[in-house]
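User: quick one
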Amino acid sequence: MNKDLNAVELEVFRQLFAAAAEEMGVRLMRAAYSPNIKERLDFSCALFDRRGDMIAQAAHIPVHLGSSPASVKAVIEAFASETMKPGERFVLNDPFAGGTHLPDVTVVAPVFFEQDTSPRFFVANRAHHADVGGAEPGSMALATHIDDEGVRLPATRWTDDAVRAFANQTRTPHERLGDLRAQAAATDAGIQRLHAMAERYGVAKLETAAAALLEHARRTTREALRAITPGTYRFVDMLDGDGFGHDDLAIRCTLRVELTGDAVFDFSETDPQCEGPLNAVRAITESAVLYALRCFAPHDLPDNSGILHAVDIRTKPGTLVDAEPPAAVAGGNVETSQRITDVLFGVLAQAMPDRMPAASCGTMNNVLIGSQPGDPEPFAYYETLAGGAGAGPDADGGDAIHTHMTNTRNTPVEAFEHAYPMRITRYAIRDGSGGDGLHCGGHGVIRRYTFDRPARVTLLLERRQHAPYGLHGGEPGATGGQRLISRDGVTRDLPAKGTFDVEPGDQLEVLTPGGGGYGVA
Amino acid sequence: MSTGEGHRIGVDTGGTFTDLVLVGPEGHIVETHKRLSTPDNPSRAVLEGIDALLAEHGQGLTRRDVAVTHGSTVATNALLEAKHGQTVFVTTAGFEDTLHLARQHRPDLYELVPRRPDPPVPRERCVGVVERIGHDGRIITELTDEALNAAVDRVVTLKPDAVAVSLLHSYANPAHEQRLAEALRERLGDDVHLTLSHELMPVFREYERASACVINAAVAPRMTRYLRKLEQGLDGASLQIMGSHGGTMSVEDVCRQPVRTILSGPAGGVLGAAAVGEKLITLDMGGTSTDVALIEGEPTRSTDHEAAGLPVKLPMVDIHTVGAGGGSVAWVDAGGALRVGPRSAGADPGPACYGRQRGLLEGGGINAWWPTVTDANVVLGHLDPTMTLGSGLKLDAEASRSAIAQLADQTRLTEVEAAEGVLRVVEVNMARAVHRISLQRGRDPRDYALVPFGGAGGLHACRLAEQLGMTRVLLPVEPGLLSAIGMLTAPPRSMKTWSILRHLADPELRDILAQMLHGTISNESSGFDGRTEFNFDLRYAGQSHEINITLPNAVTTDHIGIDLKSFVPALNERFAQEHERLNGYRLDDQPVELVAVHAVVDGPSINVHTRGDSPAETPTPQARRNTGAERVPRRSVEIGKTYPGPFVIDETSATTVVPEGWALSVRPDGVLEIKREQPR
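Assistant: Done. Structure below.
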């Protein structure tokens, strides 16, 4: 029981903080300019206490969940709280100082009340920007050095000059400024809401409530972890490769649960960071742990840092799950994050065989299509494709559904064809791709693109070699595939990671992996 | 006898009750009636209710003497109970899975095994036809006779009772859908329902369009059977159905487009509320959920709707629903927080005070009380402990107390604190719902009056208003029957949509618009003696969200000679202003794209008048001067006087709490105005 807040206040403040985060999200979505934010909802908003612990969030994208506190903490570290002033904002995307990968840009604002000399709260939001000046359009191509992936912005005080300078180094400065302006407006919405709450309940009460909610989440998570028999559990899964010839990259997790309820997720035996862009910074690993805990803990747990306070996470700097500069990290956020989650679900399945499902698709199936250099009407397009969900102890996995660390919408065929010089000529559920079992894994999808103009395509795909695992005798899901059916009728398989040019009449077909099965059929 | 000349009846079928209102030729309410619904055969309660209502009225009117407007839940229930027909979905080959791919997202981020709700058509009943139209309406692959026959053969072998056809880009060129329709009609006959996407919803985004079409087709057979039967029972009385768009529809129109009735009853309620003022926020609290809506002169519409978790993006009254109602169950979570819902005690076992929980508890059917919001209201004295329930049974206040005591024990609060706490939690939920339809759409709730209705809206209205900084609550006459009253004020309405997808600056646009507008006005308005209003979905080119703009009085039947030269710039400017209001900026160097045009064709509407009845009894002053929940019958408050809270207003269909710091007065039309005395 909580000393400072009764049962009613806990729920009332949980709702109030969550509503404030939601309001920031609505403001951001409305004001944003790029389709990536407005149509695919690739952003998240959150509130933080003075230490940078997350109190509430409105998330569409789980990979943003646990990683945004790192952004706020990076701002606090770079600029002592005492030097901050009301009305100030900070912006950053540096993966090695509070970010995740360069396209995710975070805006942080301190929140002051009346005579405060240092902030009592922070509000922040993170949005995926369609381009940040990397070597290829979309800034997600194969690189071996962070500097080739785009502009790197450490925690920076927001000034018009600083923001404009950042935007001017991208391919689409106008759109970047529009989206950043929307992010700033969203922080204003969060601050306004907190001020309104303070007027009604008092600042001290808000701080007490924030602390009590963190404690509520920590307590609930620990309670859930008690379902695990104390002991040591291990799991390993592989990334196919980094696109530079380094294959079978292992992510290993050991889960130790003590009688006391203490739990440690230890990733320190994971392979060293790689040459290609599959490196994840530690914040992403924390996100994955938060997500996995959030899935098996009671369903209506408040989304805050208290969940992570319930466990210990160990990583070794210089590995795939705790990358150091100057590693390339574009795929760490979208691909490695999925594999870390597969490993976490796998290790939890060892500990709780009758709770956890088999592996889901395990890749976001990133497809980037842009104009070739010199095209008088340049365009750039990015999408991720769903796959099959893993089967669980009581149910088949869903077909064609985004799982784990992403949840972006698809782009409607009719909207796509209206906006770009290409067509979708097939979009279907990929029958037979889900793993068999007592409960079957969900099926992936097939999507075929037909080009009407020369274009340049970048693929960043995983689970083409190592299939999504089944559990307890269930079959693994089918691996994915990708091929080019050229205008002269020749079909050839494509590498899962790389950039290539296509001509009018060419067709690209991407087949996404299915989910693993559960139990013997 | 034909003394019924001009008598009209509004009938709203709800989950628990069927409400009926009889209005005389002058538009005055002359009789009301409430009876239990008959979910197995909803028309039984409707017909018996009409007979009972007319008998109570006692003027010798019969069914055939009255005009009936009906709010029906048949479409929604058919969908929720998956009691839909053997529907077949036909689309472009290669895209047969459109319904099952949906938008590829999962509704719940944290489900261990995520799933989406199943569409009403399984995959094996989705049929592809070889053809292809481009985004500009150009035919890329011709629909050959061979392909046509193959698809129709396949449909016929599936023995459908309804077929939905939605081909890619049919909004840009309906030719292939039309040919399919002819062939299907010929082979299947007239008894099989046919939904064509270019008719129901000619707008781009194939999944959302297909979803609306299959839902329409899936509920059509049951809706049609229901309405035919009801028509028969009415012995020739005229019958109109309340549509989700805020107008009424003919039986023929509903049989064609039943999906337009999924918010039938709730739309009636919002329309009823709209009669009490200009800028309003409505609060309709029922047993399992609460609906809120925003009114500016008339109810705002949006296309952002779902039914059974599936999108139905047709223009409907913009009603936002939260899963918190009188029957919502309060519980304590693992971390020690008091939560309310989403579980509901519903009608069975119902709140503890309904008396059924006690028996279940003793018989081992449940192992603890299910304390509900209604029970909290009983414990706090907001509900009259001596009242009788709809079933005729007496309210079991002792059971409410036991249920709340259990909650108090778990939270280490007193009983009153626990009961207060339940209300606070529910009201925070409702406040979030109100924010979603106001603040999140660029409107400040403090500029609006709150209009509670339904049986329970008034229990929470003033407290909720206080939380939202609102200072005025307007309680309509007969708040428990408002949906039935509201639907009698609805105009006959039909809606039509054209997909445009062209820049406003496009030189061809003017001809397209001129042709379209003139065509509509001459065709559509001939049937109705009313007006046509156009509204427009616009966005900056490259954006993916449209803003709906209505130009006040710009284009109506009276303006057949539309001056398109000034009209287009005016539209552009209105859009830029609205974009700035909603999003904080405008982009004057960016071209504006006209995505779609909607026409709303209305017939004349008739007002329903309410008036403040003269008081039947005068309240004794000391009854109100005491603190606590003094109870005042609604009919006893007088026009022109002010009554300071705290007290509770009782009437047959609803209960309203007037807390301390609020004061009540009566408007000449009988509406109760409750104002915050010292606005914070």
